[in-house]
Design a protein that fits this description.
By secondary structure, this protein is α/β, with parallel strands linked by helices. The protein has helices spanning 2-27, 61-72, 82-87, 89-97, 117-135, 151-159, 179-189, 213-228, 236-241, and strands at residues 48-54, 77-80, 101-104, 141-142, 163-164, 169-170, 195-199, 232-234.
Length: 244
Amino acid sequence: MQRKSKIIISLSVLLLVVLAAAAFCIFFDEAVIVRKNTIYRVRAADKLVALTFDDGPSPVWTPKILDELNKEGVKATFFMLGAHVEKYPAVAERVAKEGHEIGNHTYDHHVLIYYKPEELKDEINHAERVIKNVTGVTPKYFRPPKAWLTQKEKVIIGRMGYKVILWSLNSKDWVTFHDKQITSYILRRIRPGDIILFHDSGGAFTTEGGDRAQTVKTISRLVRKLRERGYKFVTISELLEGAK
């Protein structure tokens, strides 16, 4: 009986830990912890905001997102995984041909804080080569998976010629919140110079296969409401050019 009680207590503790971890991921933006010496928003002279999309390209969701962006006349920045660019080159080419900006999001989305310096360089360079070979674009902006980077890694990446780009507003679209909830969340917090994080691929535990239907729906709704407030949508390069 005592052994059974211990098992129940252990399972209960484990469940609480799992629930706490899930709540942390859903309601807290971990990027806040590692923003130092990165670009996560700018002091913009005008009402400029940048839409960014991580983890693509996806053969399912990226084209739908591109359709919405084209419909609204918006250019965005896509932080691509080298492995996905290799797998879906036609989609990556379309992103480039339609005038969107392309950033480096590593080759296969591993968390980088466990990497040795040479491994870190190899990972980023591998993704860069793939992106350049497929799209003709040499990315100059880098976004780390899950945002996690040490200060030492930020220095190494900077010496490689990259600017590290995080975000000031996280849509949490991977949680599959309703598009009205995502839009409402952003509208309550938006400021000039914000960088907004979305995803065009990936799920809670995978880099592919997620459901981005709510992301697709959010784009037009958000763009129209922000335009009513006088906001303009720009790429990361344009946002940095418009900084005070």
